[in-house]
Amino acid sequence: MAVKEKVGVVVSAQMDKTIVVAVENRSPHPKYGKIIVKTKKFKAHDQENKCQRRR
């Protein structure tokens, strides 16, 4: 199975060659139908330390 690509926002770039990315998942509530935003943080490899945190 292939790795699914996700798009997110860099929330931390303090570690060496590693960044933390927050990915939002929007889905409707099963009973009420309201859109709920869930956020999950992933660690990603940044070989050249290019990524910067946005403020």
UniProtKB/TrEMBL annotation:
It holds the Pfam family Ribosomal_S17. Belongs to the universal ribosomal protein uS17 family. One of its GO terms (cellular component) is cytosolic small ribosomal subunit. It comes from Atelocyanobacterium thalassa (isolate ALOHA). Keywords: Ribonucleoprotein, Ribosomal protein. It comes from the Bacteria. InterPro entries: NA-bd_OB-fold, Ribosomal_uS17. This is Ribosomal protein S17. GO terms for biological process: translation.
